[in-house]
Design brief:
This protein has four helices and no strands. Helix 1 (2-14) runs parallel beside helix 4 and helix 2 runs antiparallel to helix 4 (68-86). The chain is 68% helix and 0% strand. It has a single domain, classed as Acyl-CoA Binding Protein (Up-down Bundle). The protein is mostly helical. It is flat, with a radius of gyration of 13 Å.
């Protein structure tokens, strides 16, 4: 359960960043979080002009096939880099 504990700690750290990461970094965090917690993306890709929802869907879809453990490890690593840059 150490990985799950480390993941939850990283999620909490993400809420404590003093500066806002780039949109690409935020999308990567979102996608890794969703892959780690929900698994592969489901449903249809949003359409129309909801560009934010489309970007989030595409980012998550890009992580398709990663195991939940792999996604947790990558999330933890990314948060380590973001804390060094934005905390």
């Amino acid at each position: 359960m150490a990985l799950a504990d480390d993941f939850q700690a990283a999620v909490e750290r993400s809420k404590q960043l003093t500066k806002r990461p780039s949109n690409e970094e935020l999308l990567d965090l979102y996608a890794l979080f969703k892959q780690a917690t929900d698994g592969d993306v489901t449903g249809e890709r949003p359409g129309g002009f909801d560009f934010k929802a489309i970007a989030k869907f595409d980012a998550w879809a890009g992580k398709k096939g990663k195991t939940k453990d792999e996604a947790m490890k990558e999330y933890i690593e990314l948060m380590g880099k973001l804390v060094a840059s934005y905390a």
